[in-house]
Amino acid sequence: MGKKLVMAQKRGETRALCLGVAMVVCAVIAYYILGTTVLPLYQKSVWTQKSTCHLIETSIREQEELEGKKVPQYPCLWVNVSAVGRWAVLYHTEDTRDQNQQCSYIPGSLENYQTARADVEKVRATFHEKQIFYCFSATRENETTVLYQRLYGPRTLLFSLFWPTFLLTGGLLIIAMVKINQSLSILAAQK
Length: 191
What we know:
The protein is an alpha+beta fold. Helices cover 54% and strands 19% of the residues. The protein has helices spanning 2-44, 94-99, 113-130, 154-190, and strands spanning 49-61, 76-83, 86-91, 132-137, 145-147. The relative contact order is 0.19.
């Protein structure tokens, strides 16, 4: 009976060690992926200063208004604000600025023109209600763009690193508990 118990313990310890090592390996892979995707975007983001923006004007740009330029096939919102004592163009996120510099807000659903137009009207009405809101500006003096919302801020980085850290900590704890259990069983066998 004692030999069967020892064999069962060894199998259980081996499985627990494999689980712990697998968790640590998955955490390392996740850290690598985050380090090559999210971390560079966070470091590249220059809009770090939280400011108060005052709405100057909003307009919905249609295709007819932008003749001669490369324009989107959807309505888009253009927002001018006063931030940090200067005039600036407000963009919804970093990606909005990269997608189309002529639009402050690009609607989420672009398949249906009427739905996109209603979405833009709703956002425009929200800006007119608030008039004063927080935005993110760059620390450079000559920057004339501000962001309404940062995609790659500290909160995003923290949330991205939570699960890999949880996996790494859990895996290391499992390995430590198995090793402590093994050393205690060896001490008990020696007595």
